[in-house]
Amino acid sequence: MRKLINDPRRVVREMLEGLVALCPGQALLAEADVVVRAVRAAPGARPVAVLSGGGAGHEPAHAGYVGPGLLDAAVTGDVFTSPSTDAVLAALRAVAGPAGALLVVKNYTGDRLNFGLAAELARAEGIPAEIVVVADDVALSETVPPERRRGIAGTVLVHKVAGAAAARGLPLAEVAAEARAATSALGSMGVALGACTVPAAGRPGFVLEEGAVELGLGIHGEQGVSRETLRPADALVETMLERILADLGLGRGARVALLVNGLGGTPPMELAIVARAALAGLRARGLVVERAWCGNHLTAIEMPGCSLSVMAVDDARLALLDAPANAPAWTGDGRIGPPVILPAPPPAASAPPAAPGPLAPAIAAAIGRVAAALEAAEDSLTELDSAAGDGDLGISMARGAAALRALPDGAHANPADALAGAGQALRRAIAGSSGPFYAVGLLRASRLLEGRPSPEAAEWAAAFRAAVDAVGELGGARAGDRTMLDALLPAAEAFERSAGQGLAQAWAAALEAGEAGLRATREMAPRLGRASYLGARAVGTPDAGAAAAMVWMRALARRD
């Protein structure tokens, strides 16, 4: 087990101490794992207090929602374990006044028992207390009756409704009624791509084979209702929406709020894709999405996966969702609008193609050789780049090759136009650093060869040197940094020195010097780029960028 913890028995307390240390609006009770608001009114002046909680492992829930307009206290148990009755009672004593307290409880046996008993003890002490049980997991609709369903991520929206109702000064019965109505209007469903590891257990809760997902799971690292084949995100979202909307009986014209919740191990990239599909799916069915939130709201430690929650809303419930709130995990009011996709500005008008010059056929042939060589080298460049980089150089060069093949016929008319066209094509086709480097070099060389339909060897050498210098200026690299320049700089110097011997011999000298530079990169520790993060671990393999440069240089030396 690899986790950033000290002692599994101290995980919860140390976590809460860290969370409270980062939030000046919160405080931690000395004798219980309870987070409360740091600033509270005198007991007699307090409105209804709203409390929630459960086992740890759901962060940022529940402590992350302690703040004005949301929770007054959050009670935390051991990982995936209900807090004790005494801890809940301590929270009630700390935050409740004569107006009483509402406890928002997810529908798990341990939570219901301990929160319920604490509420009974509080009443015996003269503290009015009501309980609202959240059972929003529609995945269990065919397995258990509605009152026995699990409470999952939609609970966060119930926190918000209850907290806003209490902040208005409503009496306990009305705060509870608003929370219960919100719960009845709520449905959620989740999907997991893997298990999580409880620190005390030290191993994943289950094993999920490649290409499978767990559909309809809770929030405690358990397996789902069914194990199914992994499908694209859009298809999984469609399945979850169908189940949720059918359970709630929502159709065209219904107004809803949407919560896209990460289970802890899903990156924002994937959650955004899920949110995109969920919004589109709701709108395609004619529902009106009034509010939407996306992120990690109630997790299962580091489980990869997500859940969707849909809550039916009207003007009154929207007002509660929109009411001011300030807590570390509450991300905002959720207001959204229709997607806005603007057209890209049109490119500048290009000059009409020039008449083909004497070198047009040779230029076209050379570009074809370069493209073929880059395509043939894709696998080897990928392997090299994977050793010290991110492994994308091969496919980047293949995309560049495709862009070169797609150049229009007029692009080969003369050297300047060919270099400029190739630079623009590579800029658009190649992501990462290679695209800008090759683009700036080719564009700089193009300017030096303008008006020269048949450059002499010295002019080609000067243009090549200008291109190499442009790459160095843009990236800040120097000789010895283990980059493409370690092949290109010696090649440029040899090209200039040998220009008087004619173009073919000069390029042969450039090629020989470049090859030697490429070999030298094997023993260089990288000082720039991703490879620099590996330091001496990258020594022993040649630089992938320098290798790619030699691929096209060799291709230029050949003849059809």
TrEMBL record:
DhaL domain span: 361-558
Coiled-coil portions: none
Domain of life: Bacteria
Residue intervals of the DhaK domain: 7-330
GO BP field: glycerol catabolic process
GO molecular function, one term: ATP binding
Species per Swiss-Prot/TrEMBL record: Teichococcus rhizosphaerae
PROSITE patterns in UniProt: DHAK (PS51481), DHAL (PS51480)
GO CC term (a single one): cytosol
Protein's name according to its UniProt entry: Dihydroxyacetone kinase subunit DhaK
Species lineage: Bacteria, Pseudomonadati, Pseudomonadota, Alphaproteobacteria, Acetobacterales
InterPro entries: DhaK_dom, DhaL_dom, DhaL_dom_sf, Dihydroxyacetone_Kinase
Keywords attached to this entry: ATP-binding, Kinase, Nucleotide-binding, Transferase
